[in-house]
Amino acid sequence: MSQPDRLQQQPLSFERHTFDGHVRSLGHHRYAPSVAGSRLHHRLRDRSVECELKFRVDGVRDHARLRSLLRKRGAKLEGKYDEENYRFRGPGKSTRRTTLRLRVLNGGPHGVLTAKGPARFVGGVKIREETEIDVKDVHATLDLLSQLGFQVEFTYNKHRAMWTLDGVVSVTLDTLEFGSFVELEGPLEVLPEKARSLDFDPKDALKDSYSVLARKHLAATSKS
Asked: Which stretches within 28-149 are classed as H helix?
């Protein structure tokens, strides 16, 4: 599919919502007086809480239905892009509870490096702490992670169309080798309602991440 001009001209903006609906909840750090002044020019680490609902759908037909519904609801198409996702295995026990993933956007060199903590569920909504940064050079990032002891466990590709619904919820139509999906992301208190407005029941939301689904798909195909 063609790539919108706006996505070629500027990096994508990835926003996350906290429990009270605010965007980008930043981590707080305290420095000793001797170093506080020298570090004021550094941006605080971007750590936030990701709330999402993910549903498996029936391919092209369901995506077409949802595009039509989103247009009727006045949703805004933010863009379409391809991702190559690298899932890492970290060194030592300290990294086992963290999911580290590098997304290469439209073949690079730009990408996004994401670390996610363990998930919990509230009314079907998956909630995870997340830290992510934009990456200007994915090749250098891969080299750096390798030197730090992280190994690429597997990769998978994804095509994504990203919409914004009612100015607060991100709705993505995702196509992967192992299926078609819809993902909603936004404030916890509105996600179930927005999902129902698109004819999805939060109780039917998938618990597995794309990384877990990709691992299961790879395991199944290797046996066949």
From this structure: 33-36, 60-72, 138-147
